[in-house]
Write a structure and sequence with these properties.
Order of helices and strands: EHEHEEHEHHEEHHEH
Number of domains: 1
Shape: elongated
CATH architecture: 3-Layer(aba) Sandwich
Oligomer: single chain
Distance between the termini: 12 Å
Bound molecules: flavin mononucleotide
Strand content: 15-25%
Helix content: 40-55%
CATH class: Alpha Beta
CATH topology: Rossmann fold
Structural class: alpha/beta
Number of helices: 8
């Protein structure tokens, strides 16, 4: 029999790893086999043993970090289903920014076929690599001189002034509810 769920996470500053671990913990506490693992340790054969592969990663300059590679690994494996969650500094209340983000990153077919979830997280300068710090610094400098700012520009300007954490266990609920329903339906 196949194992149920594997959550593969790509996490630079820790938010995505934390969410992946919370989801795995919550599923396991309901008696559903669910494990979380760093994408660096993932081999095609090792994920073939699972029914559902969930890829968790961060939003990075408007893109889903590592999405193409993760989807390719899934497609080359014998795992049956694929789902996605993305963490980001944008608050959940910014619905338009988040729906534009999905539309810019997933095709119409992917939007309808791949279950996808956005989880607000925050920013952690302490764990950020130098290139990411520089990227934020350069974007902030550019924004200072921009005349017509978008909603995201304004949020970005406010957000990048320091580290903050707006993650919460409550935000995993749509993901765990979906996974539980899926497992029950498949049984
Ligand atoms: C260079 C850079 C670009 C980012 N771009 C976005 C973005 O486009 N949208 C967003 O909501 N958050 C953005 N963020 C915030 C990260 O997505 C957020 O901190 C994420 O949870 C980090 O995940 P991790 O801690 O697992 O690495 C960005 C952060 C950095 C450092």
């Amino acid at each position: 029999m196949k194992n149920e769920i594997i959550i593969i996470y790509k996490s630079k500053t820790g938010f995505t790893r934390k969410y992946a671990e919370m989801i795995a913990e919550e599923m396991s506490s309901d008696g559903i086999s669910c494990t979380s693992t760093d994408y660096k340790a993932v081999k095609i054969d090792s994920i073939s043993d699972y029914n559902i592969v969930v890829f968790g990663t961060r939003a990075h300059a408007g893109r889903i970090d590592g999405y193409k590679k993760a989807k390719q690994i899934f497609q080359e494996s014998r795992a049956k289903h694929f789902a996605l969650f993305v963490t980001g500094a944008t608050p959940n209340t910014e619905k338009k920014i988040i729906s534009d983000f999905w539309a810019q990153n997933l095709s119409a077919e992917e939007l309808s076929l791949i279950p996808h979830f956005y989880l607000q997280s925050g920013l952690c300068y302490e764990n950020m690599c130098l290139s990411d710090r520089l990227m934020i610094k350069a974007a902030s400098a550019m924004l200072k001189n921009k005349k017509e700012k978008t909603a995201f520009d304004n949020i970005f300007e406010q957000a990048v002034s320091g580290s903050y954490d707006i993650s919460s266990r409550e935000y995993i609920r749509p993901v765990t509810a979906f996974l539980k329903q899926y497992v029950t339906f498949e049984a």
